[in-house]
Specification:
homotrimer; alpha/beta; uronate isomerase, domain 2, chain A; TIM Barrel; 2 domains; six-stranded parallel β-sheet; three-stranded parallel β-sheet; 17 helices
Chain lengths: ~400, ~400, ~400
């Protein structure tokens, strides 16, 4: 993390590139925060506070937001070393006028006030877009989400399919599916009709990707084994939608964890499990995220060999500089530059796009400086162009935005 | 390993912190060396010398110690690149008045003499404690060890349970257990009574932890599968003892290896195997060491999510800077700082605490400098406090010493 | 990749050491290129170009070489970030008088011309040897290769055994084996006679190693399970040939990939699979390459413990600085220096030895500078000697060249 003039120059240039964020959990009707609780209620903070001793009580829905904020900040001094904490400090400094290098329990009231004041600005969403230098951001939509009523140049729909693939046999899911498609999905033919209508609807409403998160031992071996998943790949092909595969999450490993703070991974997953899928769908671009940094070399090698495999971002437990840096270095050295989607924020509120992307851009700037400019392989201008591809150019081309 | 002024300053400050070493194999009745053979007889040297061609003969018990030392040093020039060799040079320089940067076969006699002279000092144990800035050190006690006759403020007992869990069905083990507990362990009830008495005895005698080393494929799935192991966890809960899990060792892989130089690991282990245990014992603090650096990200993520999982040290095959640095960087970025036990020496003789901890502190100082101070996230003073937590503060709090 | 004076000095000294390259796919009767197509037809370029969209048509045998070159260079601007591309630029600069930092589609004709002119020099092979500072290079010979008609001081035969182990039951393989050995291999005894004759012939013709590439899940558990493989190990013992194990490749994962661009790996392999082999053949030196960087720590630990296990090079998907550097750092810290074969080129044409070794030596120089000289563990001269062992000394001793 040593800084130097060249790295700083590159970082400045990278920050000037307007972002297209290709994966988030933003609610386009509530994209920004209204209370500091919307920031600190992010599972990264609730789970870390819980991990150092906070009980579940402050997280109950009837607890007033400012009490929850106080409870979480009460634990800040146990976790102020983490990069997640540094995102919060960066949000406070960038958006709330905070001027310290840290925050503690004693700062809770002042921070709450500053946040409430700031977030009430009628143009707050605009301000966040502008200060973040954000142009547009992808959503994660359930198959029966309402895709109307928001600006689709800014908020790009994306069909999330976990529910269909892993819970397609549940009556409530089938009912919801019937409600939006008019088809009672049961046998292969009716599933195909239902999914076809879904894709039509999503594409009509500007969807630019299909996405799914998968457990480490998932192995798509063919239409007989995973019929719904396989059909989704077929529709991605037919509708020319990239298919985001987020590989490696085990759900509910920590059973008493906080909301969204129960999932972990198993480093023993392998992309070898996906060989039949990648071979069967040469025309589908698979944008692959891996949860375990230990799978990054497999990802690098698959993107190097398979024309239809693209590296995508640094996901969740791998989204810390200690893993971003080595993973990104390997990608930049061995994966064609047009096949790398550099980053996505995974954010639930827009305020997080800025600190997360800044963390990434610091890693990127340092690698560009050390591996490309200082070795005379690229000029500074060329290095910035390489960064632009990762931050934005490849997103535009691959997703067609 | 590049040094700079800031890193040096941090290193100096970290060296001034009195150590509490939470895991070793020290014999409290013979804690220091009496002959250079006690240093070079450490399995790190015998196995490395054997690995480059030394036969088993110099290791036979009837070989005079100075011949064994000569035989081992005879191979030094094959392995003087290793960090283990650098520990020896550091011991020679710090404790034996050696002033070279290396040692070779030709130095054997001079080193033996210097060691014999030095080790005869009547206050040698005191001297080593003082020069190492060591306050106290944990032991590894078999269940029938005599826990009396040594200073328990310095030498902290710890119940090692491998024998009970993996050889509890052997008649000799049951006899030893009966001898110390008065209980013939057979069915579940008698095992429970025997273990209960063991825990009582150990806690009465100042034990601060229960510990076990486990093979990579161990999967504690419940009391029916691993009844003794599960009971140990229950007693850790009832007696409020942390449970040190040292995960990943395969015993006797190299069948003709030297004593303690036969064990290896298999990088395919996963902490997912421990999900039931971690969920079942929310009140037990599990201090987890992993033998494979490839499991470090799982450890980081489990310690980030599970309140009862704590990272502990850099074990054996991961105890080289090439693995300590990336593993530690990830922990410092993503695990709450109060849930990290930085290091332990694993030493068999006290003289090794100094060079091993110094190696660790160099890694720590460099990361604190680059990731925290130079990025303006912490002041130098705050960085030192963070180091103090890892080196000592968390040991005090978690083990209650 | 930051350069500094000390690293540059070390690099200069390392470049002055004449190389013995212990693994390649050179054809000793066509060791150098005759057309730029011989360079850009290397699978690294065809597969990367294919990965960014090049069809199979330019690779058909009836396509004129210059058209193929143009087609591949047409895609250069998609992959000019890769280290493989940098090898090509280095070849152009070193051997073709190119003076730019990059090449693009527009340069195709000029490059083809320069290459054709250069490669026609009657002493081109000599020139490449001299400029590369190459002394000799190992071959990869099928069991029925003709081992006569080339200079065996330069081109060292090596018996490659994949075909025998994995396709020994195919009639055509048995016929070929019968042709060269005079033995119809069928039962154990006849296989043993056939292999014995093969080894005799190879050793008579100066072979210095037996080699095989193995899938990630290969587990040599004994003569009953893998009879041919086990016999090979026995003959290596009897004929005192090192056995190169190249562990981890899955063949034909990408079914429609270009020639030699279809293979991938699975990071879940483990050296634990080899425990019986390593124990059974104490007198055979196993020179082990791993395809997955995730297996490097296992390799380091096995070479540290097993006298007969030696680390060898950085293979294929691990042959990029992002993996070479951490893998090499760990080896230098924990494996006796006499048990490390630093590198091999794996080249198909001699022109690649220079850029690949230079990449490796840059990594080596940087680690020697930072970890050994700057920490005062070695003088510059000693660090160069350490480098010399890895680059050449260990190859001479272990393979007896």
């Amino acid at each position: 993390m040593t800084t130097d003039r060249l790295t700083e120059n590159l970082l400045d240039a990278l920050q000037a590139i307007p972002l297209i964020d290709p994966h988030s959990h933003i609610d386009p009707r509530q994209p920004v925060s209204r209370h500091l609780d919307d920031i600190l209620g992010y599972h990264y903070y609730t789970e870390l506070a819980h991990s150092v001793g906070m009980s579940h009580s402050p997280l109950k829905p009837d607890v007033p937001p400012h009490e929850r904020v106080r409870a979480i900040l009460q634990h800040a001094d146990h976790l102020d070393n983490t990069v997640q904490y540094s995102w919060f400090v960066e949000i406070a400094r960038e958006f709330l006028g905070w001027d310290g290098n840290g925050v503690s329990a004693a700062d809770a009231d002042r921070l709450i006030e500053a946040a409430t004041r700031q977030f009430q600005a009628p143009d707050w969403e605009e301000q966040v877009f502008r200060r973040t230098n954000l142009q547009s951001i992808f959503l994660t939509n359930e198959f029966d989400d309402d895709l109307t009523g928001f600006d689709r140049r800014r908020y790009v729909p994306c069909l999330r399919t976990d529910t269909l693939v892993f819970h397609g046999d549940r009556p409530d899911v089938r009912q919801r599916l019937a409600r939006v498609t008019g088809v009672e999905a049961g046998d292969e033919g009716s599933w195909r009709r239902a999914l076809g209508r879904l894709f039509e609807k999503f594409v009509e409403h500007g969807a630019k990707a299909c996405a799914i998160s998968l457990p480490p031992d998932f192995a798509p071996t063919g239409p007989d084994q995973q019929p719904v998943f396989w059909m989704l790949a077929e529709f991605c092909r037919d509708f020319r939608l990239p298919f985001d595969l987020m590989i490696g999450v085990n759900r509910r490993v920590y059973e008493n964890g906080v909301f969204q703070g129960q999932d972990l991974f198993d480093h023993r997953g392998s992309l070898l499990n996906y060989r039949r899928l990648f071979n069967a769908f040469a025309d589908v671009t698979f944008c692959v995220s891996v949860l375990s940094s230990g799978m990054n070399q497999e990802l690098v090698s698959h993107a190097w060999i398979f024309p239809n495999v693209v590296t995508m971002g640094h996901w969740w437990y791998s989204n810390v500089p200690a893993y971003i840096e080595p993973d990104l270095r390997a990608r930049l050295q061995a994966v064609p530059k047009t096949k790398q989607i550099g980053y996505y924020s995974d954010a639930y509120k827009l305020e997080f796009v800025l600190p997360k992307y800044r963390m990434y851009r610091r890693c990127l700037a340092r690698i560009l400086a050390d591996e490309f400019v200082r070795t005379h392989r690229l000029s500074e201008e060329q290095a910035i162009e390489l960064g632009r591809l990762l931050l934005r150019g490849n997103v535009e081309r691959i997703f067609g935005v």
